[in-house]
Amino acid sequence: xxxxxxxxxxxxxxxxxxxxxxxxxxxxxxxxxxxxxxxxxxxxxxxxxxxxxxxxxxxxxxxxxxxxxxxxxxxxxxxxxxxxxxxxxxxxxxxxxxxxxxxxxxxxxxxxxxxxxxxxxxxxxxxxxxxxxxxxxxxxxxxxxxxxxxxxxxxxxxxxxxxxxxxxxxxxxxxxxxxxxxxxxxxxxxxxxxxxxxxxxxxxxxxxxxxxxxxxxxxxxxxxxxxxxxxxxxxxxxxxxxxxxxxxxxxxxxxxxxxxxxxxxxxxxxxxxxxxxxxxxxxxxxxxxxxxxxxxxxxxxxxxxxxxxxxxxxxxxxxxxxxxxxxxxxxx
Length: 332
Hints:
By secondary structure, the chain is mostly helical. It has 15 helices and no strands. The protein has helices spanning 2-10, 20-40, 47-79, 91-106, 108-113, 116-139, 146-170, 173-182, 192-211, 213-219, 223-228, 233-255, 261-273, 278-303, 310-331. α4 (91-106) packs parallel to α7 (146-170). The termini are far apart.
């Protein structure tokens, strides 16, 4: 069969893509290398002094990256939309309003004098209560629409931003600078006492999400298919949204808002995982978030020698990705 043999030899060899489990393992190894690099690069002369200090910053970046990545994937699962993120619910605007109102009514000196655990507890509780009231109000009535939740969140976000802008215009210019500094996410001034609390919250929420990973696969099929398969769609959606609110509240209160970061890592995770199963998408998103934050901070500090806030660059890149997704969706 010479013809068949020649056809077989001339046929192009198909390359099989790595399995999702292999991709997770590779990303895990890359994340470990990036974290180790951040800890030791430029610190060989004073490892005992610099590594513990850097470890606190790494812990903050890992916690925030995991929280933002998981919350974004969950939110996009229940909304069935890869452009939406939890920040659209108005969390960032509420955080800005809380910071501005505190300086406006109490003064910058009193705000700086507050204990970090107290400030963290107040900010987290305010965002959690806000999200719970929205979910309870919208889903407690006869019309239970996720789009109504998003719309209400957008409206409240505009209201909060307007109030914050008004207060920022009338406060002292020096106090305004303090408010502006708090509105950008920073990993350089994280209180170590808060890391243990945040780690417990993020770990507990992540464990709950992991135990529901198959249920999330069903939710991703849409409400009609999920109900047909016997899933209590309303109850599952409410639980997922509350976990999203918890993760976003904790991460925002810890370092500040990062609006487009979740959008960036979540959409990269869908491409890198090679599957839509949450058992792989969730860890891939979390690892990509860690690599992006820790790797980006390492490059900024030790390669370019820039003393700037990483969140500014992330917001710039994430904004471009957001525009590209909108354009691509409009063409479709």
